[in-house]
FCD domain-containing protein
Amino acid sequence: MAPAAGSDETPGEAAYRRIRADVVLGRLAPGRKLGLDGLRGTYGVAIGTLREALFRLATEGLVLAEGQRGFAVAPVSPEDFREVAELRLLLECHAVAASFAAGDLDWEGGVVAAHHKLATLERRLLAGEKADAAQWKRYDREFHQALIAACGSETLLETYAAAYDRFLRYQMVAVVFRGAAAAEQHAALLDCALARDAPRAQRILRDHVEGCVEHVVQAGTLAPFAPRPRVAAQAAPRRAGGGAR
């Protein structure tokens, strides 16, 4: 998700951050048209500022710029979800190897603390308790970021964060919780981090991410957001006899 607001944040940055969070967390549904007049009332900034924020989000793949038709939230599809998942895995698996090799005791403590919060919330979900989806996914995000925090590359961390947010949007739209399987994989990733076992962690990560994708696709929860095919206009029926004489 977008970085937290700072004290010197401009109106344009604030609008970008708020719209981005609403897209990533599914509050702005896939395919929704983003009329500038309506957004101006919601986010309280000028149309020019909104347009700049939306163009910025378009470069991240979260919004579509449709030329003269304006803007819309990027659609979702199983094919795109799989591509986003592969990008996330490419970055995360590389970062995990670097992070496990360089992580120190402070890094280990960060991983343990992040997993503790995530595991506590997962236990509540498994017990049937209601939990805020945004908070649950925030803890999930924090844990995965903690695993790679020692990779030594700010560029890699920033690129991964953007890819993760595109993956997260699918999870929020589909409201997916895979139950014990996901919780067990998180616990196994913690064990890998403490043992510095990067190859095993990479295998678990692939099962973890691909399992989420297949769970969503098989459940069909993306179907309500799929773009509707355009129906060609039917030609007016011709009169018998070839028309007027």
In short: The chain is about 65% helix and 0% strand. Residues 78-223 form a domain with the Four Helix Bundle (Hemerythrin (Met), subunit A) fold (CATH 1.20.120.530).
